């Protein structure tokens, strides 16, 4: 699918591609169906390989690459948005502003890279027997398309949390960050309801909260990111509690952006 989308893009942009054949294969260590964007990660990696194979990395703007990945996934019937693809393309820590007029005019958001050292220690929690994150999107997406007032206003509030989150990180106000993380899940829960989220997913959020840690989904369910504002002792308690609940917990390792001067930006 990504080969097809890439070819269409290059044809539309008059980007010449040299001849030659290639074979694509992949391996991944991303746990399946955990809301960790495993499918888009594979497509993103494939796009990077194709850019290098045809030596056109300098001709495909960074801002447009997430759209290509998303279009490829749509070809496969995957319901998704741009957020995961943006951070996979950019790497590191990215603030995303999906300003409507900007999106309508250019087809992509305003993406701002941030210093990863601003992040506090975070922990990834996921279940060994995950749920299907794709099912969680269904009714809310349709209600959004139907212009449901509650869904639209709540989604706007979720978007505003990102703005506040950026401010909290820049100020290193981690108490505020913890509050925003919890609020994010509470808003999602109010839109989707526990039946759609699933008991296992809700429990993954509640286990850290019972210890005073902040937690929210990494995506649409299947995995949770947690922050322990009280430090290492609280983190150790989190690890014990997760093990007792049957969850896997790992420290988050944020990789800096791998973009170079060869990756043009608008």
TrEMBL record:
Function: Sugar-1-kinase with a strict substrate specificity for D-glucuronic acid and ATP. Involved in the biosynthesis of UDP-glucuronic acid (UDP-GlcA), providing nucleotide sugars for cell-wall polymers. May be also involved in a salvage pathway for glucuronic acid.
Catalytic reaction equation(s): D-glucuronate + ATP = 1-phospho-alpha-D-glucuronate + ADP + H(+)
Keywords assigned: ATP-binding, Carbohydrate metabolism, Cobalt, Kinase, Magnesium, Manganese, Metal-binding, Nucleotide-binding, Transferase
Family stated for the protein in its record: Belongs to the GHMP kinase family.
Any matching Pfam family: GHMP_kinases_N
Protein name: glucuronokinase
Names of the cofactor(s): Mg(2+); Mn(2+); Co(2+)
The EC number(s) this enzyme carries: 2.7.1.43
GO MF terms held by the record: ATP binding; glucuronokinase activity; metal ion binding
Domain GHMP kinase N-terminal: 14-92
Domain GHMP kinase C-terminal: 167-244
Broad class of enzyme this protein falls into: transferase
Domain of life: Eukaryota
InterPro entries attached to this UniProt entry: GHMP_kinase_C_dom (IPR013750), GHMP_kinase_C_sf (IPR036554), GHMP_kinase_N_dom (IPR006204), Glucuronokinase-like (IPR053034), Ribosomal_Su5_D2-typ_SF (IPR020568)
Gene3D superfamilies: 3.30.230.120
């Amino acid at each position: 699918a990504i080969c097809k989308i890439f070819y269409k893009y290059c044809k539309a942009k008059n980007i010449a591609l040299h001849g030659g054949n290639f074979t694509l294969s992949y391996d991944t260590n991303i746990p399946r169906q955990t809301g960790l964007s495993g499918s888009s990660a594979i497509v993103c990696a494939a796009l990077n390989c194709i850019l290098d194979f045809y030596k056109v990395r300098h001709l495909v703007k960074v801002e447009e690459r997430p759209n290509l990945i998303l279009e490829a996934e749509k070809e496969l019937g995957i319901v998704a948005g741009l957020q995961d693809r943006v951070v996979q393309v950019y790497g590191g820590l990215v603030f995303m502003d999906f300003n409507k007029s900007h999106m309508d005019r250019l087809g992509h958001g305003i993406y701002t890279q941030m210093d990863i050292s601003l992040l506090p220690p975070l922990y990834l929690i996921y279940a060994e027997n995950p749920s299907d994150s794709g099912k969680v999107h269904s009714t809310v997406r349709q209600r959004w398309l139907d212009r449901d007032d509650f869904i639209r206003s709540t989604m706007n509030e979720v978007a505003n949390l990102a703005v506040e989150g950026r401010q909290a990180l820049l100020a290193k106000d981690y108490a505020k960050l913890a509050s925003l993380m919890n609020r994010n899940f509470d808003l999602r829960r109010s839109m989707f309801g526990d039946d759609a989220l699933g008991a296992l997913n809700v429990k993954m959020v509640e286990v850290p909260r019972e210890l005073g840690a902040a937690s929210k989904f990494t995506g649409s369910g299947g995995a949770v990111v947690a922050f322990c504002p009280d430090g290492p002792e609280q983190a150790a308690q989190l690890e014990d509690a997760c093990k007792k609940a049957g969850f896997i917990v790992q420290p988050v390792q944020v990789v800096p952006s791998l973009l170079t001067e060869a990756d043009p930006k608008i």
